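Handout, section 3.2

Students often ask what a structure token actually looks like in practice. Rather than define it abstractly, here is a full record for Ice-binding protein C-terminal domain-containing protein. The first block is the sequence as you would receive it.
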Amino acid sequence: MQCKWWSSAAILVGMLFVAVQANAAMITYDLDLQDTGGGIIEASAPFAPAQVIPVGEVVTIDAQFAPGQALRIDGSTDFETLFLGITSNTNAFSSVKDVTVKLLGFSGTGGAMDTYSAPTATARVFGHELGVVLTDFLTSTQSVTFTGYSVQFTVNSQNPASRSFAVGTLAATNAEITTVPEPSTYAMFGIGALAIGLAAFWKTREKQVAAIA
């Protein structure tokens, strides 16, 4: 009887694990940022396999920009926005909740943060996209620069109730593309700094030897 009880418990745990896994979508993609003018930056990229996402799904998105690219958003003028999400070929009314956004490869000014979160549900919107919009999230003295992002949210509502998604999407205003030095550039800088440091060391050492002599 004891073995049977343990067996039943194991089956129950297994069923719970499968249920949890079925309600989570992990999506990754790389984006090549495009400047469309007027401070608007956009990017999209397909990912595979396509994900069918119903209401209640917990969606996690991990994205990186192309090598050498960073996105800078400035809060000093007008009204900045940042959309991070996925796109379907089907329109729907949808909303999300329990949102967390973390900007990767981050640097900021004026005390800007790399993480934003909101537990409450967003307003329902109609369109092909599903994701998170940060709106007017910087003060006039702040800016953020980042090379990728990690986003998590729960699908709060969707009509129709389930859609297939296969494209990652970003759109930003009051934004510009900046460059990030490649690792080889950092290495060359390190070698150059080392050479200068060694030259200064030997020059100082020669003076000390001459003074002793």
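Discussion prompt for tutorial groups: The mean pLDDT is 83. How would you have guessed this from the sequence alone?
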